[in-house]
Amino acid sequence: MHIAVLAKVVPDYAVPSSDFELVDNRAHAKYTRMIGLYDENAIETGVQLKQKYGASLTVISYGRDSDVPVLRKALAMGADRLVMIQGESDDAYTVAANLKLAIEKLGNVDMILAGQQSADMDRGLVHGLTAGMLGCPFIPQVSRISSENGVWTVDQIMENGVREMSVSGKAVFSITSVPENVPRIPAVRDIFGAKKKPVEKMVSVSGNGACVTEISVEIPILTSVCELIPMDDPGVMAQTLLKRLREARYL
Amino acid sequence: MGRIPYWNIQCGIIIDILAIPVFCLLSYGFYRYWMKIRVGKDRIPLGLRSAAMKIGPLYIRSFFTRGILGARIYDQLFTGITHGCLFWGMGLLFIGTILVILNIVFGLPIFEGRFNKWFMSFTLDTAGLMALIGVLGLLINRLSPSKRLSAIKLRKGFIPMEITIIGILVSGFFLEGLRIASTVYEPGAWIGNMAAVLVSAIPNGLVWHQVFWWAHGLAALAFVTWIPFSPLSHLFLAPLNTGLSVPISGPKMGVLDFSAFENDDATEEPRLGVSKLSDFSRKRLLDASACLWCGRCHEVCPAAQTNKALSPKAVMITMSEYLNQEKYEDTSLIDDISKDAIFNCTTCSACMEVCPVSINQPKAIMRLRQHLVMEQSDMPDIMSQALKSLEARQHPFFGAASGKKDWRKDIDVPIFEKGKTEHLLWIGCAAIYEERAQKIARAMVNILQKAGVSFGILEDARCTGDPAKQMGNEFLFQEIAKQNIGDFMALGVKKIITLCPHCFNSFTRHYAPLGGFYTVISHAVMIDSLIQSGKIQIRSQLQHQAKSIAYHDPCYLGRRNSTFDEPRHALSSVGNLVEMNRSRNLSFCCGAGGGNYWSEEEGERINQIRAKEALDTNAEQIATSCPFCLLMLTDGVKKFTEEQKVFDIAEIVNAAID
Fold first, then answer.
1. Which residue in A178, B123, B523, B619 has its CB near the most CB atoms, within 10 A?
2. pLDDT tens digits for A104-155?
3. What count of Cα atoms within 13 Å lies in the side-chain half-sphere of residue B377?
4. What span, in angstroms and rounded, lies between the C-alpha atoms of A84 and A156?
5. What is the pLDDT of residues B119-138, one digit of tens each?
6. Alpha-carbon Rg of chain A, whole angstroms?
7. Residues of chain B contacting A15 with CB distance shorter than 8 Å
8. Which ipTM did the prediction report?
9. Tell me, what DSSP letter sits at residue B228?
10. Residue B265 in this model has a pLDDT that exceeds 80
């Protein structure tokens, strides 16, 4: 069994919005780069399946060469090898076309996992498009996977319930976050071991792209409309507060 | 005419000859300890330097003060005095017995003149009485054991030993009395003479004297043989353990060497942390052997006192039981100690501070934690999130609402410039990311600017890595520390002012072995020196309306680094200092140490206990000099009052200067 996990390296997704800066419509380069939130769940799911079925596990990423050290974490978590497609496009169709080529090049992939959406663009497009291009079934929001006689049984988590499905043959599943796939923290000897695992680099091809043009990107600006009244003297504070409330005609 | 040895006794020399096999058995008993302890690993060099005088691995000063004099035992007065009476009483009697043997073998004139009167008679009689009082006191301790003695498990084996000692002492007085009653009154032997009056009515005194003489001698020999097979083994193990303990406070984790992992030629990858007895160093196994289960550690441990899974006493008991059962390779040790217990430790080191035999409990716990974190990746959820954040963002405050620069948004803070700035003001993670703690950084910047100190901050700061180290992830700590050391080297940083005692401890203890040597000043010490040198002026009208301030000693500044006086000194110049019940080296942890700031505390809260102690002083303000203590106490106080009472020393001083 050969499992491929699609993973994207993104800028720190936990930067507080007050501290968030855009450059050329994308996050400033100063933010730490890390594997996307759901992608880590997908990697964890892959590692668990690898351990359960003795599968081999390949992580495929489309992005910058400089992200390889970040992706070593996936290898430390338990993936066997990394395929790095060197490209800078943000276009979902281009990315999916490249991922398709990489999967085809691997040849014997039985299942493809991906986080349900990236932690920066949050579109949830690439895995579905890749499945379409590969011509294989796609099931989103998967929380649990098991295999019996070449048939996958998967649980899909919906907002108000769980749907169980089975699918045979090669398939793409997008993985959601559940307590069972909280990404493990690699042990130290696995971190060192990951440095010795193979990394294959591929040159990307330029895709056709969608007929979609990005016009602008905006992030909400938090403006404080709060006046802080000094509370050194409670009397003065109360007077100021009263005055302000009257000025605003609340009283 | 002096006393005659073997008076009324035939073949008394048999007792002396029997001392030879007894000595052999005694040696064999202790040899058995060595056979167990040697299973442990050689000591790992810590890279720490101590100026203390040493002979080989033995630290002379602590060997005498804590080992021989037993200085720590007197912290608990009743036990201290009774133990002291017994120890020194028996010690003198032992010397007396040796002198008698020397008299018999070499004819040493001890039974003559003033020496006989004042030492052999008066002193030894008094010593016997002291020992008797002491052992009776200790017997009472054992018959109605205090909470600390019975916590977890009560150690057996003391009562038979104490009864034997009583038997030996009483029989000694009896036979002394019988001898004196049948001969002449002995000048100086005040108890013997009194005993003589009591026993003079007994018929067949000479026969009874022989019976008591042999019983006394044989019991004493049996007692000595018994020592290594009973808790009395501490007679030798305790001084040895204290002498071998590095006399620097704190667990002294040193730094681990990871080079074997990257070296392809390395034959064996090192095991990280400890999962079984044979992974421990010999010193830890000696610790477990020397432990008397007295429970003083249990009594001061913040985890044990709030009914958490951890008791340092329990850790030592489990280790000693494994050692006794020779379960050197049994990895169920971790489950027997319990994973929860291993993560409960706040590394406050109160346990080792009060331990009379200088056991390093936190180090044993931390080694187990290192194994869980680095080998098994098995740790509580919140700690794992903090570690993940540390790994990805170089700070542990995951989900922080503040950005890196938020704390200095509206103020102008100089950036450290190579060759121009003298001090690096190291802000640390808590004061960057936690809104309440940010005020410390702003206050300190203002103080330093007012005082005209040449200082600067790093434009882009990361954590020291200390939380990783405390959570057991030495690897991550070193990754972060090495980046900092590289940055400091590039900037030419030589002097660092820290706001957080954890950063202070990390820079001074753990950066040096990695190649980072700096003069590190904690902000409390800096503030005090600025006040004393007059560089900052306290507003004079404050003198009339000085507030009372209770000072909470942070474990990592006080107990770990002996900074007790400077913060008190500084606070005294702006207010009236009051002391909490537990202060200075006996201060009670706020609960945040050991990475437990990132833990879900169950049951009673450590910070609330400490906050209550602080509030009980009725002080108007509660001061501390650690951002983590500040955050924990601020939360803890909320249970009792709405009032904002907890402040950092920098905030208090900053509010008092012009």
1. B523
2. 999 899 999 999 999 888 889 999 999 999 999 999 999 999 998 889 999 9
3. 14
4. 29
5. 999 999 999 999 999 999 99
6. 23
7. 403
8. 0.82
9. G
10. no
Q: How far is A238 from chain B (nearest CA, A)?
A: 18
DSSP letter at A181? G
Q: Judged by CB atoms within 8 Å, which residues 12-71 of B form the interface with A? A: none
Q: What share of chain A is helix, strand, coil (3-state, %, to 5)?
A: 30, 30, 40
Q: What pLDDT score was predicted for residue B38?
A: 94
pLDDT band per the 50, 70, 90 thresholds, residue B256 = confident
In chain B, residues with a C-beta closer than 8 Å to the C-beta of A16 are 400-403
- Sign (positive or negative) of CA dihedral B268, B274, B277, B283: positive
A contact residues 173-192, partner B, Cβ 8 Å cutoff: 184-189, 191-192
What pTM, to 2 d.p., does this model score?
0.91
- pLDDT surpassing 80 at residue A223: no
Residue B588, both tokens: 């009670």
Distance between CA B282 and CA B205 in Å, rounded? 54
DSSP B111: S
Whether the CB of A37 is below 8 Å from some CB of chain B: the reply is no
Q: Which of A15, A188, A195 sits opposite B374 (nearest CB)?
A: A188
Q: Which residue of A has its CA nearest to B400?
A: A16
H or E segment and range at residue B470: helix B466-470
DSSP B156: P
Of A16, A32, A186, the CB nearest to B400: A16
Q: Which of B262, B389, B403 sits opposite A18 (nearest CB)?
A: B403
Distance CA A97, CA A131 (A): 10
Name the residue in chain A with its Cα closest to that of B380. A185
Range of the domain at B588: 538-655
Asked whether residue B99 falls in the same domain as residue B213, the answer is yes
**A34 → chain B, closest CA residue:** B392
What is the rounded average pLDDT of the residues B483-488? 96
Considering only CB atoms, B406 lies closest to which of A18, A34, A184, namely A18
Inter-chain CB proximity A192 and B375 less than 8 Å = no
Q: Name residue A164's beta-bridge partners.
A: A155
Angle at A67 between CA A62 and CA A73, to 5 degrees: 100
Task: Select A2-203's CATH number: 3.30.2290.10, 2.40.30.260, 3.40.50.620, 3.40.50.300.
Answer: 3.40.50.620
Question: Which residues on chain B are in Cβ contact (under 8 Å) with A192?
Answer: 258, 261-262
Whether residues B221 and B280 fall in one domain: no
Residue B75 sits in the same domain as residue B217: yes
All residues of chain A having their beta carbon less than 8 Å from the beta carbon of residue B379 are 185
Among A185, A195, A219, A231, pick the best mutation site for testing chain B contact (most B Cβ within 10 A).
Answer: A185
Domain contains B32: yes
Q: How far apart are the first and last CA of chain B?
A: 85
Whether B648 contacts B442, CB under 8 Å: no
Place of tokens 């800096």: B526
Could you tell me if B270 lies within 8 Å of chain A, comparing CB atoms? no
Q: Are residues B95 and B163 in the same domain?
A: yes
Chain A segment 110-149 residues within 8 A of B by beta carbon are none
